[in-house]
Amino acid sequence: MTHELLAAAQSMQEWLTQQRRTLHMMPELSLNEFKTSEHCAHELTKLGFKVSKPWGEGLIADIDGPNAKGRIALRADMDALPIQELNDIPYRSKHDGIAHMCGHDTHMAVLLGTGKLLAGMRDKLKRNVRLLFQPSEELPPGGAPGMIARGALEGVDEVYGLHNLPTLEVGQIATCSGPMTAAADIFEIKLTGRGGHASRPQDSIDPIPACCELVGMLQTLVSRRVAPFEQAVLSVTKVKAGTTHNIIPDDAELMGTVRTYAEPVRARIISEMGRMVKAVADAHELKGELNYIRGYDSIVNHESGANTVCKAASEIVGQANVDPAYERQTWGEDFAYYLQKKPGAFFLLGSGNKAKGIVNPVHSARFNVDETCLPIGVAVMAKLAL
């Protein structure tokens, strides 16, 4: 038997699809979500929400019930990615080099639909509702800190958010208690020596051998400095040095990412990385510089929030389609900062469909979603608020 909230949300399928495709065609990068914000504010105002713009292009949209007490916040992110979409679809991105290849258009459509559904049930609200349309999730440190600083969580008792996942089939919901996404950091290393002619290396201080040595050493930070029962990822993703075959360059640069779940592990890697850079630089008579940029913190779901999500989702899609102990994700998300202030949880909405060929991961140029996931997301979000 289909849950009444899901049936109500499914009756909005055409409207939800239109919202998602409209947003998909007008993607905007972080801190430039002007038309996106305007569109969402217009739709929310029509639905009877009190809308304000606290930070950047972000929106706070409140609706109160006549007998409601307290307030729950539900969040969607708004920004797109600097990617050229390769999908051959009628609603393809109209902005070259920018596209919703992470599915934030899906998140906004779900939250708009949640607002539409709840607005029609205003008299039944047990809690007042706040919808957060947040800018700049893709640009560290993210838009969440700015929204929070400007009052996004004032008067809020709990906060929830979702992310679509095309590697999870439509109809499935997943979450977990405790750490769910990684702290996503960036490191930049520069080794500076003295360039010269490649035929006379003795006259130079060559940074390239040291750079190669350091790449190998950095890999031991996880294998030899992190306990086996902990988890961490360190990837060197960029190596830059030199201009041609017969010149020893002045400097060499490395860039990469570190992903961790526990703050002590994160702190140890930062400390040990600094020590390694100094040791290699000193051994080769180079100047070593480390710029370690802390990105998003790890999303740590509250147990009570994760349980609430599982209970709500089980009513909508059935307990068999809800995974309460889904594997930790290695990507980062600034929803972490909301959960540092208020109880709640983050969960994953299945948006893939192998039978339809919708399997490409987020941040892929061919990413897409099965739009039948939209009413499922709406129903779960609405259930959380009721």
Largest sheet geometry: 8 strands, mixed
CATH topology description of the largest domain: Aminopeptidase
Q: Figure out the total of helices.
A: 10
Strand order of the largest sheet: 1-2-4-3-5-16-6-15
What is the mean predicted local confidence, pLDDT?
A: 96
Helix content: 25-40%
In the CATH classification, which architecture of the largest domain applies? 3-Layer(aba) Sandwich
From N to C, what is the helix and strand string?
Answer: HHHEEEHEHEEEEEHEEEHEEHEHEH
Uncertain runs: none
Q: Report the span from N to C terminus.
A: 20 Å
Whole-number radius of gyration?
24 Å
Q: Which CATH first-tier class of the largest domain would you pick?
A: Alpha Beta
**Gross morphology:** elongated
- Taken together, the total number of domains comes to 2
The chain-level structural class is: alpha/beta
How many beta-strand runs? Answer: 16
The fraction of residues in strands falls at 15-25%
Full CATH superfamily name of the largest domain: Zn peptidases
